Amino acid sequence: MTKKKKLIKFKPPQKTEVKINTNLNPPMILDEKPSISLKYIDLGFKSFHDLRDGHNLKKFDTFLKKILASPNWSYVFNAYTKKPSNGAKSKQKIQSLGFDYTQIEMFHLRVSDKFRVHGFLSDYRFKLVWIDPNHEIDD
After folding, report:
1. Chain-centre distance of CA 73, in angstroms?
2. pTM score, two decimals?
3. Burial 73-106, CB ≥16 within 10 A → b, else e
């Protein structure tokens, strides 16, 4: 007996204007197929081990599947409430990774009510920096 795979259903995002800093990210990025990189993830802040509580590992897994199945970044930014992360911690992190914070926009995406992921776009890919299951980074 084979198990049927559960299909992930998408809710169309509400039509809102996507706010993207076009000086840092060209508008054509909005039409690109989303992908995610863990190259710059800071597991010193929170690790995947920290996702065990509150079904956060399941939420993160579902989030990743939906992001990767999304048609473009415009859809992702609307569906997951893209908001800038402009605080000192974000700027310091960007600089520590060898980037100029005036050239890179750090932002977070909403995974669930409290859960956020923080990162930036580079080479059309979301570079995940922090997993923030309790929305502790507030900048």
Report:
1. 10
2. 0.78
3. bbbbbbbbebeebeeebbbebbeebebebeebbb
d(CA 3, CA 77): 33
Phi, psi dihedral angles at 36 (to 5 degrees): -130, 140
Q: Is the dihedral of CA 43, 49, 55, 58 positive or negative?
A: positive
- Residues for the chain: how many in total? 139
Q: Which domains can be identified in the chain, with CATH numbers?
A: 27-132 (3.30.2310.20)
102-132 residue pLDDT tens: 888 899 999 999 999 999 998 889 999 999 9
Burial of 135 (0-12, 13-18, 19+ CB in 10 A): middle
19: tokens are 């706010």
